[in-house]
Design goal:
The protein is α+β, with helices and mostly antiparallel strands and 211 residues long. The chain has 5 helices and 8 strands. The protein has one domain: HIT-like (HIT family, subunit A, 2-Layer Sandwich), CATH 3.30.428.10.
Length: 211
């Protein structure tokens, strides 16, 4: 476990795990769990099993494994929840506001029912300049002490912007604003347990996780 990292505790199979900390799917180096603060059903996170801070720190080999795993998870999610948008808050250092309180690599997979998160993000903060990239590996070339935001649309188009003005939980704020629940964006104070329960039950119908 690194620096008392909560995610590393999950990986170590802490017997006090909550139901939403138990992996839904996993590979040698990654696992998926439901997201606390799920504003919609089907919102999950992919974590690395080893301690990395962001996508930009993953090796090309790990990114290849991540892409295969993510595509498999997306296929499963689409059957129940619809098309999937992916995003990451990519801090360059630990204990920054951009990290949203989780200093361990995690990629969000979210079914947004046709909402275009790039357009919504531009409307939410027009000062941000979004750049197109062709592959996740290109994030390694970003030299920005403020970190970055990464976004991948359901059609595979990939974008990033500087984290300079993003603050904490930027994408959650955008989604909550669009869903007209702006006061519910913060996963710490609004865990949205009911949506997590529904997500787990739909994904693992054969397992009675909740009594």
């Amino acid at each position: 476990m690194i620096n008392n990292c909560k995610i590393c505790t999950i990986i170590d199979n802490n017997p006090k795990q909550n139901a939403w900390d138990k992996p839904l799917y996993e590979t040698e180096n990654f696992f998926t769990v439901p997201s606390l603060g799920s504003l919609v059903e089907g919102w999950v996170l992919i974590f690395s099993k080893d301690h990395y801070l962001s996508l930009s720190q993953l090796s090309s080999e790990l990114i290849d494994e991540l892409n295969t795993f993510r595509n498999d998870v997306k296929i499963k999610l689409r059957k129940e929840f619809g098309e999937i948008t992916s995003f990451e808050h990519g801090p360059c250092n630990e204990k920054t506001v951009l990290g949203c309180g989780v200093d361990h690599f995690h990629l969000h997979l979210v079914p947004l029912k046709g909402l275009n998160l790039l357009r919504l993000s531009k409307d939410f903060d027009s000062s941000m300049s979004w750049n197109s990239i062709s592959r996740i590996q290109d994030l390694k070339n970003i030299n920005d002490e403020n970190g970055y935001l990464y976004l991948e649309l359901p059609n595979g188009q990939k974008f990033y912007t500087s984290g300079r003005t993003a603050g904490s939980q930027f994408f959650r704020k955008v989604i909550a604003h669009e869903l007209k629940v702006s006061d519910k964006y913060d996963w710490k104070s609004n865990p949205m347990i009911k949506n997590i329960e529904r997500t787990i039950k739909k994904i693992q119908k054969e397992v009675a996780i909740f009594d």
